[in-house]
Amino acid sequence: MKVSLTGPRRATRLPPNNQAIIVEIKLGLKENWQQFVLLVLVNCLVGGMVGLERTIVPLVGSEEFKIASDIVVFSFIIAFGVVKAFTNLVSGVLADKLTRKRVLILGWIIGLPVPFLLAWGPSWNWIILANVLLGMSQGFTWSMTVNMKIDLVGPKKRGLAMGLNEAAGYGAVGLTALLTGYIAAQYGLRPQPFYIGIAYTIFGLLLSIFIIRDTRSYATLEASQVAITTSGERPHRPNLWWVFKETSIKNKNLFAVSQAGLINNLNDGMSWGVFPLLFVSAGVGLEGIGWIKAIYPVVWGVGQVVTGPLTDRVGRKPLIVWGMFTQAAGHVVIGLLLFSPFMSGMIGSVLLGAGTAMVYPALLAAVSDAAHPSWRASSLGVYRFWRDIGYAVGAVMSGIVAQLVGLVWAVHIAGILTFLSGVWVLMKMKERKPSFFSR
């Protein structure tokens, strides 16, 4: 018996009757929409795990555990950012050497204890441990949803794929942050707001084991079709150190992308720790803080449904530059409290979310444009390493600045760095429209 699906590549397997079934795969969103939709759902659950912490955990540190030092309160973000960054680096190598699905499952297994530790951990050290595990889990799970969607859709719809992936993840971050704020206002900071995290981890693990299929064969197919990438890279199998240097330093476009990613997540790390404490001190209640913390990732997430495909049409550089400038404007509104505290938080967070929505899919797509499919997962891992180090850099910067001159100045400095990062991309990054099949 012979079963053939339209597409340029065949994969042969033997059924119980030993008659070969030849299944041909094809790149494209339309051709692989079922698995793509399932991966979108998985990334909603992945993002929801981060949303558990956005509103509540800084207040757990300051109010329940009575931690007076801002740098100590922000230590959970530092732990999360550093661990996630290094896990991103490892996940890319594992994805290239093993399978995407195995790494995805590993990430969910590591994340299983997280909501329990957040809900019932008896000391701040247990919260730090939860964030170490969360950083590892996110590094594996989110990285794999990115790589698997890129594998499925091929080069033509890469921006759209990243827009939908990040929209799902960060939309879930925002909605979960809002939900935990409401639950905390009704029942207290712990344990009730973290119950939903238990459901997220169990459902995500089951989906990944029983429903999601591996996609490495799609990357192999694309690699066979690519003669040269937008940065002039030809097919080869470099080691991780080569990829690290190429992505971090040697390639000017990839350096511009990596520094922009770091500063972008510096903003997120700063807002994660600073905003709950800043707006509580300004008289905003838990529900109001929940809205401020939710609107940033919701706009960030939903906006990428538009900005993802837009970057396929207009290029990567315009969205990166104007996205960084829009984020800087958000810092101005919040740092100067141009309106009432709640309205300043909402308007500033909308600007931060809109700017990040412009930047995020364009950065991921720019890396994917420049890296050959044979080492693309490793290059994305290096980029995501630098991007997520931004969480830790933002938390450390915010903690030190807040201790010295106050929380508001942490917002101001983040805004200045964001503006300068956009200027760097404007001056140094060379825009090249994606073209993967020129030989």
Structural write-up:
Keywords: Cell membrane, Membrane, Transmembrane, Transmembrane helix, Transport. InterPro entries: MFS (IPR011701), MFS_dom (IPR020846), MFS_trans_sf (IPR036259), MFS_Transporters (IPR050171). This is Putative MFS family arabinose efflux permease. GO terms for molecular function: transmembrane transporter activity. With about 450 residues, the chain is an all-alpha fold. The chain folds into two domains: about 1-25, no CATH class; about 30-430, Growth Hormone, Chain: A. Helix content is about 75%, strand content about 0%. The chain has helices at about 35-55, 55-65, 70-75, 75-95, 100-110, 115-120, 125-155, 160-185, 195-210, 215-225, 240-250, 250-280, 285-315, 315-335, 340-370, 375-405, 405-430, and strands at about 10-15, 20-25. A two-stranded antiparallel sheet has the order 1-2. Strand 1 (about 10-15) and strand 2 (about 20-25) form a beta hairpin. Helix 5 (about 100-110) runs antiparallel to helix 9 (about 195-210). The longest helix is centred in the first third of the chain and has 30 residues, at about 125-155. The radius of gyration is 21 Å and the shape is globular. Residues about 1-10, about 10-15 and about 435-439 have low confidence and may be disordered.
In short:
This protein is mostly helical and 439 residues long. It contains 17 helices and two strands. A two-stranded antiparallel sheet has the order 1-2.
